[in-house]
Structure formats: C-alpha cells, structure tokens
Amino acid sequence: MSSPNDTSDSKQDIISLIGSDKVKHSILREDAMLSSTLKSIASGNFADSKDSIELPSMSGPVIEKVIEYMNFKGKLLREGREGDNTEVTAEKFENFNIPTELSLDVLLAADYLNI
Amino acid sequence: MISFKKGKIKVPEKLQPTSANIDESWLILKNVFDKVLSDDTHDISFEKTYRVVYDVVRFRQEAELYNRIKEYLVQRFTSLKTDTFDKNPAITSEEWKFLETLGEVWKSTNIHLECIRDLTLYLERTYCERNRVPGIVETGLEIFNTCLLLPLKDTVNEEYVKGINNLRDTHEYDTPHTEVLERLGSMMLTILSGEDSFFVVFVQNHLLEESIKYYSELANSLNLKSIEGFQKVETLIDFETKLDTSFLTLDAATKVIKCIDTVLIWGNYESIVEPLLLDALDTLNGEYLRKLYSLTTERKYRLKLRSAIQNMINKNLSSIELDESEKKRSLIGTKWASSVISMFNKYNKLLEGLSFEVESTIDNVANTEITENQMGGRQLSTTNNGPDDSEDFSQGTVSAAGLLNETFSNFFKQNSKHSAQYMSFYLDTCLKKTLEKTEINDSKNSILECVNLVRLLPDKDEFTVIYKNQLTKRLIQQQSSLKVEKFACKRVNEETGSFWTHKLGTMLRDITRSEYLAQNFSVSQQQKATEDSSTTTEVLEFVPDILTITSWPFQDIDDIVAEDLILPAQLEALKLDFEKFYNKKYNERTLKWVHTLGSIQIGFQFEKSYHDLTMPFYSALVFLLFENNDELTTEMILEMTHIPEQELYRQLLSLVMSSKSRILKKSPASKTISKSDKFSINYSFTAPTEKVKVQTIVGNTSSRRNDNNNNNNINNVLERERINATNAAIVRVMKRQTAITHTELLERVTEEVKQVFTLQLLVFKKSLGFLISKEYVQRDPDDSSLYHYIS
C-alpha cells in the first residue's frame, strides 16, 4: 500500500479526461490507472495524448461520476481498507450516490473503462 | 450498491453503433495491427481502436472478430518466417546469426502480441473469458509456434546446441551471446508443445546428447588420470554450471551437469576415479576427496566411492604385520594395536569434515558386505556399529566417521582372533607407563584413542575379560596409577556398556578402600606398638588388598586359598591383628587370605651389598625360614611352611636358578629338585641396584601349559559370561512374547546381544538348554520349534 508520501508526490501528477462536452476533468494519474483501458491509452505507444485523454463516447456528467468513483476507490485502496472489512466498505459505498437518470450511462462507461 | 430512487432511467442517446459493419471495422483494425507489427503506432489513436473493438463486440460480432484476428496472425507469422528465415538461407552459415535473429523476432513478437491484446482487451474480457477460449497472447504464441517455430525446430535445435558449444569453446561467460541464449531459452520454455514446453519436448534430449558428445571428445584430449586433469575437469564443470543455470531450467541444468560428470569422470570409473582416489588417499589430500565426492549426488557412485575408500583403508590396515621377531605376545600385540590406532587417527583426520552422505539403504549394503566378510558361515550377520552409527543410519546418512568406523569394525572382525586381545595389551602397556607422572597425559590420550576403537570390536566381552585380568594384575602388583586406571575404566565403561564392566568399577573401589583401610590399620598398629612396646620393637608395614570375591576374575577361590599355611610368628600376629581390626569395622564379612597374590619386601645384608628384596609370598616364606636355619632340605621346608608341593618346587627352582636373583644355593647343584636337596642362603649374591625384584621363573615346559591354560581360562570365562548374557536376553525377549519360534527367538536374541558380541549357535543352544532344564522355558509338546515362557 502506498505511504502518505507517495500520495503527496502523485498529487502533482494529474491528467485530464475529456468527454463529449470537450470539458477537461482532472484526475490523479494514479487513480486513472485503475482503469485498464485508461492505463493502456496512457502508457501505450500510440498517438493518443498521454496527459489528456479523449473519451468522446461519454458525456461530461458521466465522466464526472466516473472520476468521483475512481477517486473514492483510489482513496480506499490507499487507506488499505478495501477487503479488510467488507461491512465498513459497504457502508461507505452506500454514501456513493449515482443519480438514477445517469445510472445506465455510468454502467456502460464502467464497462468500457473496465473499472 | 445503488439505491433505486424514483425517477426515470435515462436511456443513453447513442446506442447506435458508429460502425456496425464488421468488414468496415476489420479494415480499420487490420490497418492498426499492420502498423503495430511494423512498430509504427504513432499516428493511431488507441481510444478509437479500442472503441471500434468495443462496438464490434456490442453488436455481437465478437466470434467473427476473434477468428479474423487468428487468421490474420497465422498469415503474418507465416510470412514472417518466409521473409526472415526461408528467403535467407545464408542465415545459418554465420554463427550466431540465426539465433540472434530468432531472439529478436521473439522479443518483438512478444511486444506486438501484448499491444494487440491491449487494443482488443474488450474482446478478450467479454468473449474469451465467457467462452473459455485462450486470450489473444496465448493464441498468438500458439500460432507463432505452429507457423514459425515448429517448421524451424531442427534448425533451432542445431543452432542452439552449436551456440552453447561455442560458448564452451571460448570459455567466455559474459558475452552478448549468453543473453541471446538466455532469451531463446525462455522462449522455448514459454511456448508449449502439447503437455510440456517446447524445450522439454524438442530440445532437451538433443542438448543432452550433444553435450555428452562434446565432452566425450574433450575427455579424450585431457589427461584425466592425474590430479591436474581433475582440476581441469573441475573448472570445466564450474563453467558449465554457471553457463547452464543462466539460461536453462534448474532441472535441465542438473541433467546436463550430471551427463558431464558421467562422461568425464564416472563413465570411466576404473581408469579415472580410482587412481585419483588412491592418489588422494596416499597423499592424504582431504580436499580432493571432498571434491571428488561432491561431484556426484548419485547413490550408485557415492557407494562406489565409499567402498573404494574402505577397500583402500582395509588394504593399508591389513598390511600392518605382526612383528614376530618380538618374543612376547604382549609386545607383538601392543605394536600391532598402536599401528592400527595411529592409522585410525590418520584417516580420521583426513576424513574429518567430509560428509559421506549416502541414503539409508547403505545400511543393507553394509550388512551384506559384512556377511560376505565373515569366514565362519554359521555366524549370523550383524552390524557392529556403535550407538552413534545407528543414529546416523536412522537419519539416512552416514558421516565420514561412520564410514571409518565401519571399515575398522570390519577389519577387527576379520582379525577377530587377536584384535580384542591386542587392544587390551596396548591398554595394558599404556597404563603400566602411568607410574611415571610425566607419562600420564600421553597415556591418557593413548587410552582415549584406543578405547575409541574398542567400541568397534566385534566381541567386546572378550576384550573386557582380558582387560579385567590385566587390570587385576596391575592393581595387585601396583603397576599403574590408580587415578588413570579409574579414568580408563570409566571410558571403557562408556563404550562397552555397564553390564560387562560394572565389576571393573567394583575392583577399583576395592583398591581405593583397601588403601584407606591400610592407613587406618597402620595407625592402630603404631598405637598398639607404643602401648605395648615390650613385645614388638619394630612394626611391619602391611598393605592389605581387600577384594570382593564376585568382582574379581579368580576362577575358584578355594583353589588359591591355602588355609593350612604356616606363617612365621610375626606375620601370623599381623594377620590376626588385621582380622581383628577388620571385623571391628565390618562385622558380617569374612576374610580369606589369598597369599599367592601378595608379595613381601625383605631387607637383607649380603656379603657384598645390602638389598631390598621384593619377592612373591611363597618365596618370601621360604627365605624367611633361613632366619633361624642355615641349611634346610626340601622336605623340611615343606613341613615348616605347608606350601603346596608343586608350588614349592617352582619357587625353589626360581630362587636357585634365576640369573638375576639367585639368592639361595642348592646342593647338589642340578636343574631339578628332589626332596633331599639341601638349600642355604647364597651370601655372595649381589646386584647393581639396591632394589631387587625376585621373580618366579617359569620353566619352558610349564610355560606353554600355562599359556594354554590362560587362554582356556579366558575362553571359559567368556563362554560363561556369554551364556549368562544370552540367558538374560532370551528371558527378556520371551517376557514380551510368551510363545516364539526357534528362528525368531534366535534372531531377536542375536539382535539383543550384538552390541557386545556375536552370538554363536553353540552358546545359544547351551543357554536355551539351561533355561529349559531350569523350567523357565518349555518346548511346545506338539510343535518342537515353538517355545513357551513359563512365568
């Protein structure tokens, strides 16, 4: 598990995700790497920009939600709580709200990003 | 968990595919893959490609896509092979070229396949996992194998071995070539051919064969029979080990090295290893022994080595000759034993720290060897290892000490006629030296070394009996230091077990107690003398040895007790005094006087000189008669002393004949003694030293008889003790199992007593007969081979 030092170091390492609304949404690189798709894009030897990844299939709100989730999961992982105590994790997870009207979009996005 | 609140679920706007047509999508993908394979991905958007795959999968075209990718890869790898290898026949003519190219191809293929896998991850995640088909990389590797590697396998094989041999030739280890070999090695291990890796299926055997070939040729050019050659082999093997472990699996590496061992060394065991071994043993080069041994882990060879070492030592041992030029058996024995001991020490030092580990089955082998070595076929096979060894065996290994012990134990068994006796002689000689204080430490060491070997004697009881006799002699004649005797006794006790030696302890205790009694007695005598000064003017010094009958090896106590002996008045008084003194201390005990074991010291002024004469008791009695008589006949002496007649003749003869201590004269001067011969003191006697030891000479005729007698005695004692021990063993066995067959009983009893001696059938029969006659054991009335224990 990462130590607090690592966290502060990687805080500066921020990439942005660009959805169909062309707005940049910032996220810690470390958290973005939780998605294997984003990881491949960012690390592969391709034409895609390494610092701002375009995801034209997703709307701004969906991306925001995705980023929120990845932050949340990344934090849990860093704290080393996930898997330790499923009840606590589940409880925390209940506070994570997804608006009903977005749920299907978010689901598709999660599948696409493999998170 | 998503909580469902009221509200509509908004259907995403774009459910329509951007391109639903598989052919269109495939064109895009194929283009991308082409670029990936040519390492030209800079103008491709990963995200777009990924989205194409995503869409294809979403519209249920994934199976089609998967198959197209497969076809595509087949096509690509086939052409890769054609382009790189087939069209370029010169590739094999240059050394390393082929291997290097293949290595590069392998390296890039891996990268490409992983890249394609990443691009089509969505396909792999959904389609491959759900339908349990291999992922893109696995599929790709398989295709690589079938389309490229398999058709080339002979070339790969050949070139690979060539490469390894090339490295062997140059003896260079850290070259870029090693890296190539390493990469190819990992390739051949990664790629599967059926059940096993490509390497195991196609290459390994070829590699082994070629390695053998290579080293066989090398072996011919090396001179392996010398230590120098051996050193060369060592470096070769070192190099090979380093080489192999760097790019082969551990398994393959060990196999290759084993092959080399076989080819270079063990294959020519007789012509290479044995001379080397003998050389190492001769020059006492433990280093080489250890190296030779560590060269192999195979049992077969290790056993060979072991037995070779054993044979060698045995040969050296057998070359120790009995020095027949010495007249006395004890001297011959001592010499022999000391050579054996020094040889043991020599080899012990040599083999120290070498672990000659062989699996536990050595036990059986050792057993059979011993059986073969036994000359009397009727004797049952037993291993005669000390307790240490059996521990070793149970752990499955034998240390070098075990090997040595085994060898010496076998050697003693071969020489069982005299080994026990001679070892005892050696101890006797050592112990007799201990009167000189400076010798004590040396003697202690010699004793320790000797007793170490005693443990390996096949018949320890025989040793104990002889040792006991000699101990008796030493103790009574005060020929050794009591402290060292105790030390030796303790060691013997530890090695042979207390059952056989606890009497030795009692003997030593008797002596210690006697010393104490002697002190007390002389004090009380002096007191008496001062109280009663009128009767005795001088006090005789008296050193009693009070011996517990049962512990000392005297055959029949009544034979040597001469009750009706007439003692001079002074001695008689002393005897009575002591009896009184002793009875006061120990009421219940009776004293029997065994005069023959004692000796008397008499001071006498001859014509020329004064001498302290130490003489046997009977001789002294005879001599003392001349205090009051000038001349006596044999008959008169007999009457005045009541010394047994035969004994008296012997004593008189020695007093008259002995060259060094002729203190009596006889008339007529002849070499035999008759009843009417007259004796008188030989006043002209003189000797260079003040102290003279008057010895009883033994005539030639009687000596042989005596020697035989002695041997018979030992044998009798031995047999008696063995029967006793066998009795006890039988009873022990039968208490556990009340009905037992003859063979089983014999086996068990043999096992019970083997620590101390080898059970002979005769002893067993006698013992069993005794127990049956005493009704401890009963023969079954129906089955004569079955015995019952009667409790």
UniProtKB/TrEMBL annotation, chain A:
This is Elongin-C. InterPro entries: ELC1 (IPR039948), SKP1-like (IPR001232), SKP1/BTB/POZ_sf (IPR011333), Skp1_comp_POZ (IPR016073). The keyword Cell cycle does not apply. It is found in: Nucleus. It holds the Pfam family Skp1_POZ. Gene3D superfamilies: Potassium Channel Kv1.1, Chain A (3.30.710.10). One of its GO terms (cellular component) is nucleus. Belongs to the SKP1 family. The keyword Nucleus applies. It comes from Maudiozyma barnettii.
From TrEMBL, chain B:
One of its GO terms (biological process) is ubiquitin-dependent protein catabolic process. The keyword Ligase applies. InterPro entries: Cullin, Cullin-like_AB, Cullin_homology, Cullin_homology_sf, Cullin_N, Cullin_neddylation_domain, Cullin_repeat-like_dom_sf, WH-like_DNA-bd_sf. The keyword Ligase applies. Residues 418-656 form the Cullin family profile domain. Keywords: Ligase. It comes from the Eukaryota. One of its GO terms (molecular function) is ligase activity. Belongs to the cullin family. This is Similar to Saccharomyces cerevisiae YGR003W CUL3 Ubiquitin-protein ligase, forms a complex with Elc1p that polyubiquitylates monoubiquitylated RNA polymerase II to trigger its proteolysis. It comes from Maudiozyma barnettii.
